Amino acid sequence: MKKFLTLFLCLFLVGCATGYHGKGFTGGYTDMKIQDNIFKVTFKGNGYSSMERAGDFALLRSAEVAINNGYKYFIVLETNSYVKTASFTTPVTAQTNGTLNVYGNTGSYSGTTYYSGGETYHIHRPTTNMTIECFLDKPANVNGMIYDAEQIRTNIKSAYGIK
User: Coil, helix or strand for 49?
Assistant: First the structure.
């Protein structure tokens, strides 16, 4: 019962989609420099985050990594997204209400038992990984989308109301 209450308290405390912040208990972003201008960026959401949100926040973090390292543009070299699923089942409880009538050495009992619990919940946590290459100037002859880091940062922050 103690584990059950702890689990529901945790779910209550993190009952919202993962916000945009560094990795913590409820998810968030991480980044790592791979080479001079190549970085790996990851965003992990919680059970209330969508795949779209995880992808947008990974793209936002990529823009910030580029800007924080003195670059204006970046391209996504590789991206992958996946969902981790966890399940838990609530314990089954039983409550019996009844009436006992005793008459001397004999008696009768009538009662009803009510059962609750036993539901299984599935929690889906999306993750998006991106490997990006950053540039000082807009590159020519590059296959794929060239992102303007400042525009990406401004637009995604505006879309999600991030200051």
Answer: coil
Query: 16 vs 7, 26, 73, 102, 158, CA distance in Å?
Result: 15, 9, 32, 55, 19
Q: Give the pair of three-digit tokens for residue 76.
A: 């996504």
Which has the closest alpha carbon to 25: 16, 14, 17? 14
Report the candidate in 74, 78, 83, 85 with the shortest Cα–Cα distance to residue 37: 74
Q: Reduce the DSSP state of residue 12 to 3 states and report it.
A: helix
Helix (H, G, I), strand (E, B) or coil at 117: coil
CA gap 123, 38 in Å, rounded: 33
Summarize pLDDT for 29-75 with one digit per residue, the tens: 999 999 999 999 999 999 999 999 999 999 999 999 999 999 999 99
Give the start-to-end residue ranges of the domains of the chain: 17-87+120-163
Return the structure tokens found at 118.
């036993």
User: What is the pTM for the complete model shown?
Assistant: 0.76
| Cα separations in angstroms, 116 against 5, 80, 89, 91, 95 | 15, 41, 12, 8, 9
Structure confidence by residue, pLDDT tens digits, 114-148:
999 999 999 999 999 999 999 999 999 888 899 99
